[in-house]
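Extended Data, panel c. Modelled sequence:
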Amino acid sequence: MPRMTTALITGATAGIGAAFTRRLAADGHNLVLVARDTERLREHATELHDRHGIEAEVLTADLSTDQGIEAVENRLSESKHSVDLLVNNAGFGNKGRFLDVPMADELTMLKVHCEAVLRLTSAAVVGMQARGRGGVVNVASVAAFLPRGTYGASKSWVVQFTQGAARDLAGSGVRLMALCPGFVRTEFHDRAGMGTDNIPGWMWLDADKLVAAALADLARGKTVSVPDPRYKALMSAVKLAPRGLLGGITSKTGRKYGPQ
């Protein structure tokens, strides 16, 4: 009988993270669910266990703190109940232009989007490399390819870091991929207090379809996934557009341009 595999997902109770948990549970993976809200985590874990018969472990952690990051690092380093797939999904957006957002909030974003991703990826990959198998999905955004504030800059870092690490680990059996969605119908924008009335309907993606496409890209060995034909075309156009024009366009769409 094959060994049950285990996936750890941060930001697991909502949005893209919750979509990953639903798909992975349906595929028979045991789960480690990471988020800040213990009650919500437990409710989600119970639902997934009852529906799919998998084990769903709960780990309460705030990735904007060293203590929270360390708790997840420790779980990823366990060899007895090893993690085969890490999904670094936790993230948030700030409402407002540069200098409108408090510096503390900007630094917290870097902590969650960059430092946590670096540390958790490193903690997971050590064991994966030793076992000769494993995968990491770092959720970035199409904002990574646009000149738009700390959010876009942090997601650009995620893409560059993931591509570099994937190259260094080539041939090890460990796959790394940066997932770059566009606008996804989740509670992300409401939590950040961002209006979405000016976003055309065609730009919205379904989280479950997004995850299915992302996992297919991971299986193909892609290191960057833009999992929708509409956004693939849009990003191709972005590569040809002047940077100044892109800055003006993204200003009109608001500070936050992307998923989660």
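The two ends are 36 Å apart (CA to CA). This feature is highlighted in the accompanying rendering.
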